[in-house]
Design brief:
Elements: H1 2-7, E1 15-18, H2 26-29, H3 87-95, H4 103-113, E2 114-116, H5 119-122, E3 133-135, H6 143-154, E4 169-172, E5 177-178, E6 181-182, H7 185-190, E7 199-202, E8 205-213, E9 218-226, E10 229-235, E11 239-241, H8 244-254, E12 257-258, H9 260-266, E13 272-273, E14 285-287, E15 291-293, H10 302-305, H11 308-317, E16 328-334, E17 348-353, H12 364-369, H13 373-379, E18 388-395, E19 403-405, E20 416-418, H14 425-441, H15 445-448, E21 453-454, H16 470-479, E22 481-483, E23 515-517, H17 532-556, E24 572-575
Helix pairs in contact: 4-17, 14-16
Length: 577
């Protein structure tokens, strides 16, 4: 969506955007209902392979990877959290040979997109105003939201702007929200420019292959299926893959770009050997289900907040409990004993939530997370529809790496997805420490005044272990392991000297002319926080790189666009990008 907007600013470029899904819905606009979009027609409903290291409480021991199959992608289904990550993340990218990606060089692109509606933050040199993407504070907070921030202060942390000078500390979340409604990338970047004559958007168009001339190794078009018919779109200048960390490597592999041995195994003709395609898979995971009971009606309980009063307040004023992002109210960043506590580079993010899996009585949250009936009924059922809050410790820089591979050469079959969560011993240590700190947060006076007490029930699968021991917490985090849906890294950015790199620092696929990947899959290391904002930044920067290349080439008369004759273009359409 970002690329389509920025590239169509050049009036003589014809831009085609292919989207496998359809339009957003009225339900997707309502923040509190985001979990009801999981496993809907707007969701690819990916499920990685079962592994013994994580997700043991899920059906078939398989995690659920929700990814947006809709115009605007996962920004239509996510919880709208605007977190840029840590400046050291980007400086690390640059130190790996990725010129132009240091924090000082990417900050202007964060600010370019942003329309910060908080007047205090808008004055900060770290924020921008007037951009397409609206960022605002939540119009509604429960009393627990304030208590979360006070609890962090009680533990000795600063109250800070986590998108500013210092990340370590506690704060209220900032959201991609506009007047209480979701501000997806489709709403932010596509709707305002929908009347541009050079921008063409094809919905329900499933890309199946990038067309690459095998001798020159130049990308010249895309095959896609629409209305059950295979079609072709040709590109004079470039083909850009922005399908996410699962589908982007899948599409490259289907196009013959990837590990030669793997492509031979699945019957795809090799175009270019690039062994890093689909490797380096990273994700943020959290130990979910750490639930605390409270004695007062201060949390969000679904059967209490969904009523005519809330609906009218939302429809007329754009505020009230329906604007809550499923109870995500505050955030805390801190460094465990396994990190350098003198440095501002946290290894745990606390997602502080005025809800739990029990908030809706065991219906949609349980379904969205894929919990088994046996686990839910044993561990959570006694808390159904009661006032609770939860703390989700999320590991920020996991060392475990998964991968994406093809099952066969069928473009409509989902690829083989292996998450490898918690396979690195350092990840389990950091996660275990995060759980302990979550329990400590619940013991602060700020939360105790509501009668906060941890739900001290032994989790199924871990009842043979003594409570509060390291062994118990290790077992627990392997049960209710919740992906935060930050899949990244599978088309790693890096210089040509990096054998695992897929794209160069200008996001061009190594060894293939006229082909770029621009999405979260290019991240060499996942950023320290939620990745919606960084992914938008990557697209803003990528669009400028494309413009600069063709502008400079035109001046020097060195680069020519591809021309097509009738042999190339039978029953097809030609675009610039």
């Amino acid at each position: 969506a970002v690329l389509a907007n920025r590239l169509s600013e050049v009036p003589h470029w014809n831009i085609l955007l292919l989207e496998a899904g359809g339009h957003e819905t009225e339900i997707s606009d309502v923040p509190v209902l985001s979990l009801y979009l999981h496993k809907s027609k707007l969701d690819w409903k990916y499920r990685p392979q079962a592994q013994e290291t994580a997700c043991q409480a899920m059906i078939d021991k398989r995690c659920c990877w929700t990814k947006g199959k809709v115009i605007g992608g996962s920004s239509v289904l996510n919880t709208m959290l605007y977190i840029r990550g840590n400046k050291r993340d980007y400086n690390q990218w640059a130190s790996m040979g990725n010129y132009g990606w240091s924090f000082d060089e990417v900050l202007p692109y964060f600010k370019k997109s942003q329309d910060q509606r908080n007047p205090y933050l808008a004055k900060s040199p770290y924020h921008g105003t007037g951009g397409y993407l609206t960022v605002q504070d939540s119009p509604f907070n429960t009393p627990l939201g304030v208590a979360f921030v006070q609890a962090g202060e009680e533990l000795g942390y600063d109250i800070t702007d986590v998108n500013g000078e210092q990340q370590t500390g506690f704060a209220f979340y900032q959201y991609t929200m506009r007047r209480g409604y979701r501000c997806s990338t489709a709403k932010a970047f596509l709707r305002p420019v929908r009347l541009r004559r050079n921008l063409h958007v094809a919905l329900w168009a499933h890309a199946t292959k990038v067309l690459i001339e095998p001798n020159t190794k130049r990308a010249y078009g895309v095959e896609f299926i629409r209305d059950g018919v295979k079609r072709v779109a040709l590109a004079r200048r470039e083909v850009i893959v922005s399908s996410g960390a699962v589908a982007s490597p899948q599409l490259l592999l289907l196009s013959g770009v990837g590990d030669a041995q793997h492509l031979q195994e699945v019957g795809v003709p090799l175009v270019h050997h690039l062994p890093g395609v689909g490797q380096n898979l990273q994700d943020h995971i959290a130990a979910a289900g750490l639930t605390f009971q409270v004695d007062y009606p201060v949390s969000l309980v679904m059967n209490r907040l969904v009523n005519i009063n809330s609906a009218l307040r939302y429809a007329i004023l754009g505020d009230g409990p329906l604007t809550s992002s499923v109870g995500l109210e505050a955030v805390g960043f801190f460094t465990t004993k396994y990190g350098n506590q003198t440095d501002d580079w946290p290894d745990i993010e606390f997602m502080l939530v005025s809800t739990s899996a029990t908030t809706d009585g065991g219906t949609q949250v349980k379904k969205a997370h894929g919990l088994t009936d046996a686990f839910y009924n044993d561990y959570f059922a006694p808390l159904n529809n009661k006032d609770v809050f939860s703390v989700w410790p999320m590991i920020l820089r996991p060392k475990s790496r998964g991968y994406i591979k093809l099952r066969n050469n069928d473009p409509l079959r989902y690829p083989l997805m292996v998450h490898n969560y918690l396979t690195h011993p350092d990840d389990i240590r950091v996660m275990r420490e995060g759980v302990k700190q979550a329990i400590a947060l619940g013991e602060t006076a700020a939360l105790k005044r509501f009668g906060a007490r941890f739900w001290r029930k032994l989790a199924p699968g871990c009842k043979h272990l003594p409570f509060y021991t390291d062994e118990y917490w290790e077992c627990y985090v392997r049960q209710y392991t919740l992906t935060i849906y930050h899949l990244s890294g599978t088309c790693k950015m890096g210089p040509a000297s990096d054998p695992a790199a897929v794209v160069d620092p200008e996001l061009r696929v190594h060894g293939i002319k006229g082909l770029r990947v621009i999405d979260a899959s290019i991240m060499p290391r996942v950023t320290s926080g939620n990745i919606n904002a960084p992914t938008i930044m990557v697209a803003e920067k990528g669009a400028d790189m494309i413009k600069a290349l063709w502008r400079d080439s035109r001046r020097r008369r060195r680069r020519r666009s591809v021309s097509f004759d009738s042999e190339h273009c039978t029953n097809c359409t030609i675009f610039d990008l």
